[in-house]
Amino acid sequence: MSNVVVVGSQWGDEGKGKIVDWLSERADVVVRFQGGHNAGHTLVIDGEVYKLSLLPSGIVRGGKLSVIGNGVVVDPWALVKEMKKLSEQGVTINAESLLISEGCSLILPLHGELDAIREDAAKAKSETGPVIGTTRRGIGPAYEDKVARRALRVCDLKSEETVAKRVDVLLAHHNPLRKGLGFDEVNRDELIAQIMEVSKHVLPLVGASWKILDEAKKEGKKILFEGAQGIMLDIDHGTYPFVTSSNVVASQAAGGSGMGAGSLDYILGITKAYTTRVGSGPFPTELFDEVGQGLGERGHEFGTVTGRSRRCGWFDAIMVRQVMKISGITGIALTKLDVLDGMEELKICVGYELNGEKLDYFPASTDDQANVKPIYESMEGWSESTFGARSWVDLPANAIKYVRRIEELIETPVAILSTSPERDDTILVKNPFE
Ligand code: GDP
Ligand code: IMO
Ligand code: MG
Fold first, then answer.
1. Phi and psi angles of residue 410, each rounded to the nearest 5 degrees, phi first
2. Which residues contact 119 (CB under 8 A, 6 or more apart)?
3. Residues 191, 356: Cα–Cα separation, whole Å
4. Residue 128 backbone zone (phi > 0: left; psi -120 to 50: alpha; other: beta)
5. Amino acid 200: pLDDT
6. What is the CA radius of gyration of the chain?
7. Ligand 3 geometric centre to CA of 423 (Å)
């Protein structure tokens, strides 16, 4: 297997950063293919914590090429800030280690502002739209402009004339919109000057990423695709409208990077041993009691990007099984098993009830998603610690039973088991690259 795609199997924050870091040691190239700086991927290497939003997690390892693929929406100011922060942590970032696709659409300050304006308007007046609880990074508005064919792209930065032309098109849409919402118009010349200033830092890293990936493929290099968010936040398959604005499914690794779909060899779904969600939207197995609170505390479930508390609940095998099918997942990395240590009883959702009927899948309708009642199966917990376990013999029998039951219910094998934030605290069943 030369190429591996990593995707989140739930609502994000499954521990993708740690697993991508573990895999990136075995890869030559690490590629982001969707999303933007709404992602927050945490890596812990020898006690040092690295938090990455836009940069591929491979950047912290020397000698790898990190690629920001065309499917990513790039906020150049956020990029420069993140590069600076990582440089201060001793990470070398230059044209040898980072490549930004010339096809990426840009996130401008007006996108973040519109994201926030909409969220605040929805909070004040529900008829203006649902409160999504976005990261307010401008992700949705930037993808809207991309799909509407009026976005500025990274390749436009080469010429001030092109930037000015594209800004005019963009503002012809945004200024009337802002005015209608009661906000100031964007000053064209100031925006152009800001863009030209930041482009100096970005342009040296820009290239035709599809071409460089094709060369890497020809040379037999191992390519790792790092998904952001989770499949339940996918614009097509997630809990719409409480989703992000990109396709999160593994097949997007091909479209969002310019690699052929046939090049995606192994799809690894990163799956938390329970469930969390940040922001609003349906969550059938959510816990509102001290059990959920305990998961949040032991799992340190606070958003990497926004610091918000994550909602916590039981493992939902129906939803995760659906995700396995939708995304064609070969195997999973089951993370945060240690957070369940000391719990007397564990529940797994094995079906739903909706209006007196049983359902064996998660329906698409927003109302149905909000109204399904989980049907649980109960399992005995374990009192021993699994924290930092590196082999099956270190796991109590009930923990192994829990893992086996999950595999059975989601019809997908566990390839990697993670037992702490540290990169080497993992149990390997199958190396996705081999
Ligand atoms: P991502 O967005 O999927 O990369 O995940 P985040 O980094 O947002 O959140 C996952 C959090 O769990 C991070 O703080 C990780 O350091 C931590 N983590 C990852 N794997 C494990 C694990 O197996 N056990 C524990 N206790 N923490 C983990
Ligand atoms: P990683 O890669 C968890 C959520 C937001 C919100 C919804 C839409 O760290 O797993 P957006 O800003 O994308 O328009 O917000 O999606 N969201 C995430 N939740 N992890 C993420 O990324 C997320 N990225 C976006 O909270 O509910
Ligand atoms: Mg995260």
1. -95, 0
2. 131, 132, 133, 134, 136
3. 56
4. alpha
5. 97
6. 22
7. 16
Q: Considering only CA atoms, which of 217, 253, 247, 251 is closest in space to residue 233?
A: 247
Q: Which of 13, 145, 234, 316 is catalytic?
A: 13
Mean pLDDT across the chain: 96
Give the pLDDT confidence score for residue 96 in this predicted structure.
Answer: 94
- Nearest CA to 41 out of 58, 61, 57, 59 is that of 57
CB 280 within 8 A of CB 130: yes
Structure tokens of 101?
Answer: 């696709």
Cα dist. 59→63, 99, 257, 385, 426 in Å? Answer: 9, 11, 17, 33, 21
Which positions ≥6 away from 149 have C-beta within 8 Å?
none
- Give the list of residues 6+ apart from residue 423 with CB closer than 8 angstroms, or none: 18, 21, 22, 43, 44, 45
Q: Which residues line ligand 2 (CB under 6 A)?
A: 8, 11-13, 38-41, 132-135, 137, 139-140, 228-230, 233, 244-245, 278-279, 304
CA–CA gap between residue 399 and residue 380 (Å, rounded): 9
Asked if 228 contacts 32 with a C-beta cutoff of 8 angstroms, the reply is: yes
- Ligand 1 nearest atom to the CA of residue 270, by list position: 3
> Which residue out of 21, 24, 42 has the highest number of ligand 1 atoms within 8 Å of its CB and is therefore the one to mutate?
42
Handedness of CA 360, 366, 368, 372 (dihedral sign): positive
Question: Cα dist. 173→107, 114, 141, 151 in Å?
Answer: 15, 12, 12, 11
Distance 132 CA to ligand 2 centre (A): 10
Per-residue pLDDT tens digits for 173-219: 999 999 999 999 999 999 999 999 999 999 999 999 999 999 999 99
**Which ligand has its closest atom nearest to the C-alpha of 20?**
1
Is the pLDDT at 127 greater than 90, yes or no? no
In the predicted structure, residue 303 carries a pLDDT above the cut 90: no
Closest ligand to residue 246's CA: 2
Cα 346 from Cα 11, distance rounded (Å): 20
Is the shortest distance between the CB of 13 and ligand 1 below 6 Å?
yes
Q: Separation of 266 CA from ligand 2 center, angstroms?
A: 24
Where would I find the H helices in 278-390?
290-298, 317-327, 366-371
pLDDT in tens, 55-109: 999 999 889 999 999 999 999 999 999 999 999 999 999 999 999 999 999 999 9
Domains of the chain: 3-102+206-266 (3.40.440.10), 105-202 (1.10.300.10), 270-428 (3.90.170.10)
